[in-house]
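Notes to self, Sugar kinase:
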Amino acid sequence: MADSTGAADGARQGSAAEGVRQRNLARILRLAHVEGPLSRAALTETTALNRSTIADLVADLVAAGLVVEHAPDPSRRVGRPSPVVSASAEVVAIAANPEVDALEIAAVALDRSIPVRTRIELDHLLSPAETAELIAATLAEWRSGMLASTRIAGVGLAVPGLVRASDGLVRDAPHLKWTDEPLRDLVAEATGLPVAIGNDASLGTLAEHLFGAARGVDDVVYLNGGASGIGGGLIVHGIAVGGTGGYAGEFGQNRPGIAAGADRRADAGVLEDEVSRARLLAALRLRHADEPTLAAALSASADDAVHDEVERQRRILSTALANAVNVLNPSVVVLGGFLATIAARDLDGLVAAVSAQAMHANAEGLSIRPAALAGDRLLFGAAEAAFAELLRDPLG
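result:
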């Protein structure tokens, strides 16, 4: 009995030690991924682990191909040189964002570089099956070329619609006309890879919080303006808020408060019916445009009708943001896509318009910022979802 008890105690201790090691490996890999290249000395200081433990952990991650070590900066002449640890560029996630006008696909590496990407322009609405087929075909092409030497961790999908957190089912992507579609499973079957899926704006929120305009900010409201409308995401006390089913942040479906009746374009419409990329394109007489093209066209236009449409949308957006500020009291509001473009016309003026309609205390110190990751925000967010399991258990 004593031998049996001792063996059980030893097994528990071994399991506990392995658990600690896994968490420490995950911590080192996440630091290299999120913070960028760090010296071993910086890792020692940040984690409070000793130098020999850091050396062992880094060696394991190097052997697994997840990080690389570089010689220290030769200009650093004070103290003992410390090797620099960087996330590997040879480990990638495939990130995809299906939209009503295009399918964008990119390989995003652990070091946050993007070695290859494509935008497939469309003249029809994608079906879930076609989306899976296009991703699989693109991946097969890349695997025989640009990604031939890489390890692919998985696929991340940023979808403009409601995605059920429990099983990844796309409950409703109204602009794509998808209802209860098992897109995650279709892509997994087509590619043979693990697949993570989420709402595009929620994943954009994650990316901007980790790497962009909301980095280091604990209370954030994010609104994303895309071809399919307006979505959003929330960070409260540093934690992403998804709600019961994962559907939180659908600001675009709220009924906007429109002070001037002449500003209304859609009777009984929701916010995304009034503040709309399609309306901007119509004013510019354009059929299609990616984000940089739309921004450049708006900036170059001297047409009064274009100016008036931008100002109309800014007025309605300011009221919607004031409502969000009153309810959530964020310190930062981040705007992505075409919302960032129309906000940038006069960012201080937008802050003033929001503050004028919000409760004074709630708007104190409010900052409104364009998404720092610009057109890459949804791809970075999708990749982060695909990397999640690897970052949790690097050697699993």
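- The radius of gyration is 23 Å.
- The chain has three domains: 2-87, 91-203+377-392, 213-372.
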